[in-house]
Design goal:
heterodimer; A: about 230 residues; mainly alpha; MetI-like fold; 11 helices; about 0% strand; B: alpha/beta; D-Maltodextrin-Binding Protein, domain 2; five-stranded mixed beta sheet; globular
Chain lengths: ~230, ~280
């Protein structure tokens, strides 16, 4: 039983979700403070990886990061490339899961009563504290949901990963890629094994998160203001 | 707004559904669709063209397209649809019952597997043409001049077909094994779903080297042949063709296969760089 796709998938998904969380939150906060029709265009661009087929996303990334692409040429000057490498799997997974976190984070942040934020400001809190200690805790359920969605999407990412990172067993072959090639080679036993492992990981994660969040109790921050 | 909808449905409540303006428009549309459907039905005439689907190894694409074109010009009543891919993928599609009439693989293995499963018409099976395995590099590259150069650290990514499903990958693996380079190359290998993908990887420079057929290398100006695999280092590269047992147009499929096996077709194959193959009498 070959376990490398499992480790690669886990490492890739966790890293990609962490990146997406930071980038998605930053983008949501940045966008939330701005109005205007131009920002509708910004939204559309941010949501593109969600509506485009993964192979199109993968191909675009390949054009961007390949030997002849702008980002690729830049990276080559530093002696590296992300095509056919593990960081490539992370980039592909992060890009396709970004819209999910961005959307839910924005919705969650918009729901936060601005009076709380204003009150914090009048009490002398810096913008960072306002965000970290008031806005984010209040928006946390939504952001958490977005994180879970992003992780799930990153774990299941196939098309873009295959295009950008390629099929390199032990290096870039994630569970979905391994399953695809196992089916191609008619190795049904392996394909089914990896499917079951993927299922176990997903259920464990979702159940774990559910219990953790309900044990924490969301009511705590709200009680501060009563 | 509410007023318009009220009046549109007004008729329906008082006089019954059949007379309201909305119902009348809907009725007209349905009638129109029915008429259009009746008129558009396929003409069941005696001159209905015979359609055959040919699944073939992707390395045959350019040559087979030409051969198919020549055949269809000589036989206007036949329409040929080509479906290209890795031979292993195509083999699995036949096994899963995908509708196709003719199958041509880049190695006798896929054909023998189908024969053992009773999925092809054995009496139609034959060897068609051969090819040569080469090592290619991006055109401007000067690092690799022989197969041994693959060990060099400057060569970071080597592309080949997935050995289990892609014949070109299988032949490459055999060659590397024969030359004792397999372990070193496997560390740097990226596996593709078919041989044309390997070509793309090398063309874009994302792979430093790759194994394709000579015919594929000839089709691209962005790569150059760095080395040729010794003929005795791998199984003979033989393209096998046969009519699929479940074919609904077996006679037409066989006629086309006979054409692909003809001197005229061989002329086209040779033009693209394929090599002649010794005919083996009977089955493998």
């Amino acid at each position: 039983m070959e376990w490398s796709p499992v480790w690669i998938s886990l490492a890739t998904s966790i890293t990609a979700t962490a990146l997406t969380l930071v980038a998605g939150l930053a983008a949501a906060v940045w966008r939330e403070r701005r109005e205007g029709p131009l920002f509708a265009l910004v939204d559309a661009v941010f949501l593109l990886p969600l509506v485009l087929p993964p192979t199109v996303v993968g191909f675009s990334l390949l054009l961007l990061f390949g030997r002849n692409g702008p980002m690729g040429k830049l990276l080559l000057r530093f002696g590296t490339t992300i095509v056919f490498s593990w960081p490539g799997t992370v980039i592909a997974a992060a890009i396709v899961s970004f819209p999910l976190l961005y959307l839910t984070a924005r919705a969650a942040l918009e729901q936060v009563d601005p009076h709380f934020l204003q009150a914090a400001r009048t009490l002398g809190a810096s913008e960072w504290r306002v965000f970290g200690e008031v806005a984010l805790p209040l928006a946390w359920p939504g952001v958490l949901a977005g994180t879970v969605l992003s992780f799930a999407r990153a774990l299941g990412e196939f098309g873009a990963t295959l295009m950008l990172a390629g099929n390199i067993p032990g290096k870039t072959a994630t569970i979905p890629i391994a399953i695809y090639f196992a089916v191609e080679a008619n190795d049904i036993r392996r394909a089914v094994s990896w499917c079951l492992i993927d299922l176990v990981i997903s259920i464990t994660l979702l159940a774990g998160l559910y219990f953790w969040t309900h044990a924490q109790g969301f009511g705590r921050t709200r009680r501060v203001w009563r | 707004m509410p007023r318009a909808t009220a009046s549109a449905f007004a008729g329906s409540q008082r006089e019954g559904m059949m007379n309201s303006p909305v119902s009348r428009i809907a009725g007209a549309l349905v009638s129109l669709l029915l008429v259009a459907g009746v008129l558009a039905r396929p003409q069941l005439s005696a001159e209905q063209p015979v359609s055959i689907t040919v699944s073939a190894a992707i390395s045959l694409k350019s040559a087979l397209d030409d051969i198919g074109h020549a055949y269809q010009q000589a036989h206007p009543g036949v329409k040929i649809t080509f479906h290209y891919g890795g031979s292993g993928t195509l083999q699995h599609q036949v096994e899963q019952g995908a509708p196709m009439d003719l199958f041509i693989s880049a190695s006798p293995r896929q054909m023998s597997a189908l024969e053992a499963e009773g999925l092809i018409k054995t009496e139609t099976r034959r060897d068609l043409i051969g090819n040569i395995l080469v090592l290619i590099v991006p055109a401007p590259s000067r690092i690799v001049q022989s197969l041994q150069d693959l060990i060099r650290p400057e060569v970071k990514v080597i592309a080949l077909g997935e050995p289990v499903t892609v014949p070109a990958g299988m032949y490459a693996r055999q060659t590397l094994d024969h030359m004792g380079l397999l372990a070193a190359v496997e560390k740097k290998a990226v596996y593709a779903t078919d041989v044309r993908q390997v070509l793309t990887y090398v063309e874009t420079g994302d792979a430093d080297a790759g194994f394709v057929y000579k015919t594929d290398a000839q089709s691209s100006s962005k790569v150059r042949v760095a080395a040729t695999a010794p003929e005795d280092s791998h199984d003979p590269i033989v393209y096998s063709g046969a009519v699929v047992k479940s074919s609904g147009s077996a006679a037409s499929a066989r006629a086309f296969l006979d054409f692909v096996d003809s001197p005229r077709a061989r002329e086209i194959f040779t033009r693209f760089g394929f090599t002649p193959v010794e005919k083996r009498a009977g089955k493998n």
